[in-house]
Design a protein that fits this description.
The chain has 10 helices and 6 strands, in the order H-H-H-E-H-E-H-E-H-E-E-H-E-H-H-H. It is an alpha/beta fold. The chain folds into 2 domains: 70 residues, no CATH class; 147 residues, Alpha/beta knot (3-Layer(aba) Sandwich), CATH 3.40.1280.10. Helix 1 crosses helix 9.
Length: 237
């Protein structure tokens, strides 16, 4: 179910109207405003995560929690055979702060990501390239498949890069949620240490994301939005 915070037209309207932005921001406590600023300073769309038909709710929820913890703003979810489900005990509210994008086919997801400038990065133990060797000059979309079968042949064939996480034990692969956490920790550390890569949100993205979060935390937000625009109309009547 979509809510007011998912209304892109409204968010754009508020972003372009400083009085509307400041009015709604006034309902957010100073502590929450400072927290938004702190988190947004480390948010990124330079790296994103793609889950292909992940059906274990615990793992799916752990991934979205890792995305939030490491500053990843978007999670792309492909649902061909399995519906993505959240485990509230695992996600612990992280789904409120990470934008989820759902697709019914691999083709649609990969096409949209490539159109948005992402290099598709397939995670698989069956490759020579390691996580450390992945270039980050372009935006990257890390794709993770199911633990039992991994990524589909289509995802692997469309990938710009195939990477593996170095391992030194008997097991061939990590749990999917561990793989995502290890990968994001490594890549975000590289981005934070980079002097050349512009990985932070643009000023426009920053403001729109803040507005979306504002709309999520204000009590009776629909009433406040209606009241503001009602008062605005009355000025010209």
């Amino acid at each position: 179910m979509t809510g007011i915070a998912d209304n892109k037209d409204l968010i754009n309207r508020i972003a372009e109207d400083e009085s509307a932005y400041q009015y709604l921001r006034s309902f957010v406590t100073p502590n929450k405003q400072q927290l938004f600023e702190k988190v947004l300073a480390h948010r990124t769309r330079h790296v994103t995560v793609v889950l292909e038909d992940i059906y274990q709710p615990q793992n799916a929820s752990a991934v979205i929690r890792s995305c939030d913890c490491f500053g990843i703003q978007d999670l792309h979810i492909i649902e061909v055979e399995h519906t993505y489900e959240l485990n509230k005990k695992v996600v612990k509210g992280a789904s409120k702060w990470v934008d989820r994008h759902h697709y019914s086919s691999n083709e649609d997801a990969i096409k949209q990501l490539k159109n948005n400038g992402y290099k598709i990065v397939a995670t698989t133990p069956h490759t020579d390239m390691t996580l450390d060797e992945l270039p980050l000059d372009d935006k990257v979309a890390l794709m993770f498949g199911t633990e039992s079968t991994g990524l589909t042949d289509y995802a692997l064939s469309e990938a710009d890069y195939k990477i593996r996480i170095p391992m030194y034990g008997f097991s061939e692969s990590f749990n999917i949620s561990v793989s995502a956490a290890v990968s994001l920790n490594h890549l975000m550390t590289k981005l934070h240490n980079s002097q050349d890569i512009k990985w932070q949100l643009s000023p426009e993205e920053y403001k729109r994301q803040e507005i979306r979060w504002i709309l999520k935390v204000i009590n009776k937000v629909e009433t406040h939005v209606k009241d503001f625009y009602k008062k605005q109309r009355s000025k010209y009547e």
